[in-house]
Amino acid sequence: MTVHKNVVCTFCGCLCDDIEVEVEDNTIKSVKKACAIGKNKIMHAITEPPTPSVNGTKTSIDAAVTEAARILSKARNPLIYGLSSTTSEAQRELVEIAEITRGNLDNCSSYCHGPGVLARQQTGLVSCSLGEIKNRADLVIYWGCNPVESHMRHLSRYSLQPKGLYTPEGRKGRKVIAIDIRPTPTTKRADVFLQVSPGHTFEIASALRALIQGEPLEFPEGQDTVGDVPIDSWRKVADMIKGCKYGVLHFGLGVTQCRNSDINVEQVARLVQDANRHTRFYGVAMRGHGNVNGANQVMTWLTGYPLCVNFSKGYPRHNPGEYSTLPMLARKDIDAALIVATDPGAHLPKDAVDFLKTIPTIHLDPHRNLTTPWSSVVIPVAPVGVAATGTFYRMDNVPLRLKKLVDSPFPSDEEVLKTMKEKIVYAANS
Amino acid sequence: MSSIQGLLVTVRTAKQGSAMVSSKHGELYSSEIKILRIHPDDLSAMGAKDGQAAMLTSQHGEVRITCKGADVPRGLFFLPLGPVANVLFSVTSTEESGVPNWKRLKVSLAPCDERPEPRNSGQGAD
Q1: A240-282: pLDDT as tens digits
Q2: Which of A20, A418, B30, B48, CA to CA, is 20 to 30 A from A168?
Q3: What are the DSSP calls for B70-81, one per residue?
Q4: Confidence class of residue A222 from pLDDT cuts 50, 70 and 90?
Q5: Strand A53-54 relative to strand A57-58: parallel, antiparallel, unpaired?
Q6: Would you call B102 and A253 a contact, using CB atoms and an 8 Å cutoff?
Q7: Are the beta carbons of A345 and B124 separated by less than 8 Å?
Q8: Local structure of residue A156 (DSSP, 8 states)
């Protein structure tokens, strides 16, 4: 029995790196310290692998990779998409494949936190590490997010309960505000819960900015609410922000996927900037997939853009809405797709899936999922963080190295993509 | 029994997340992703009971779900992320942003009888 300590869980953007995993005879026997989702993910990491296949016929991995390279070499306008749950090393290979094939490259943030990524390019975001939150934050805001169900250990490891260097009382020393459209397990943990009506993020952020700046806010008689919450409640929030020593605003999909998407996050980011005129105040995006942040990072290093990139002219062009995955599928101008570490069969609108079924689709994943049955080429890979190593970026932009705990009969994403890239280059040169 | 109108909000639930990483072919996952959280008064308004099957319809499609009374606002319906919810959305409706209206989709909801369930729980499974 080998006990691996300080293992990194790869499920969500928290990347908890204190997990203990017991391994015996190349089998995971137990997982300790992880949340319910993380424990299940690691325990089932090497179960239900897909069978390597081409057009539904079982084949070798090498033959499947050869067919994938042939499809991508022949395609006039391929889509390379996913990236969010694989390593940054594999993401780097995908950027190269997109460039070589003059295709389109996008990641899952394009329909999740992507609007927030675009907003940060416009306004920047005053941000901090999760460690700083643990050690310093005396005011914590959760806006449009429910980490108790989606980032289960965020509150206990980083933002609410832990006792830190300047937060020796833990939870007792922190004030907590939750802004959401419904009561959730997270809002029940807050000192102040503001239940807002949906679609008012921009107005709320604007009102808070005005209050923090000391601007007078006048309302017609009987209409003194913002987002269906009385303005006096927002005045108290503004006072709490101005009066804290170190505040952090966590925002989730309730903000980024709200009506008006990216300008909501721009306004929230400016609110964070305004608060810094009075105190130390930071914003943190509650990133979902384990390495969706890494996808934005790697694409930005190598192309200049974090998502929605097109290489058809031989150099990277960026235009969200045009080169976003979903609009490209809506226009049906994609003629092949390489999908890595995501499951569109489970996560994209039905008409997007219906179109993907009509074109050659190559799918790399450690598990048989809802995309496997209709993919033209299925390539099983070793699960990252369990049977393959590499780098993941935490939601606060801190890169962490994953451990390899067991051997897999399958190669890693990175190994498969390197081979695929070489075959595409060879085909182009021959 | 009558139909009611509202806004659909897709959400992560602890059960959905936990089941998803175990197996997307398991009963836990397929049952959780079709549970619609709805205000008890909305249930009463359409003449339905807790646990009753209902058809949830958008301009893009319809799915059969199971209603569950919950502490949520009236007129807002909450469905876990997944292939059941995705039948109701379309790539043609992203308001030029590339992001579907995951948090505010207009839908109608009407109770249905207990006939055998149609195949709506796995768009990728066929």
Answers
A1: 999 999 999 999 999 988 766 788 999 999 999 999 999 999 9
A2: A20
A3: -S--TTEEEEES
A4: confident
A5: antiparallel
A6: yes
A7: yes
A8: I
Q: Is B61 helix (H, G, I), strand (E, B) or coil?
A: coil
Which residue matches tokens 């999760």? A130
What mean pLDDT comes out for the span A70-79?
Answer: 98
Ordered by start, the domain boundaries in chain B are 4-110
> What pLDDT is recorded for position A428?
87
pLDDT surpasses 60 at B125: no
pLDDT over threshold 80, residue A61? yes
Q: Residue A268 in contact with residue A232, Cβ under 8 Å?
A: no
Name the pTM for this structure: 0.94
ipTM attached to this prediction: 0.92
Residues 180-209 of A with CB under 8 A from B: 181-183, 195, 197-199
- Residue A248, pLDDT score: 98
Pairing of β B62-69 and β B53-57? antiparallel
Closest chain B CA to residue A355 = B91
For A81-105, give one letter per residue: b (16+ CB within 10 A) or e. bbbbbbbbbbbbbbbebbbebbbbb
| Gyration radius of chain B over CA positions | 14
Q: Which residue has the tokens 């397990």?
A: A185
Longest dimension (CA), chain A: 77
At residue B114, the pLDDT reads: 62
Contact B86 A350 (CB under 8 A): yes
Q: Tell me the pLDDT tens digit for each residue of A122-140.
A: 999 999 999 999 999 999 9
A23: Cβ contacts below 8 Å, ≥ 6 apart? A1, A2, A3, A4, A29, A405, A406
Q: Using an 8 Å Cβ cutoff, are A205 and A143 in contact? A: no
Neighbours of A228 (CB within 10 A): 13
B4-110 CATH, one of 2.40.40.20, 2.120.10.30, 3.60.20.10, 1.10.10.60:
2.40.40.20
What are the DSSP calls for A118-133, one per residue? HHHHHH------HHHH
pLDDT at B59 over 60: yes
Give the start-end residues of each E strand in chain B: 4-11, 35-38, 53-57, 62-69, 76-80, 105-111
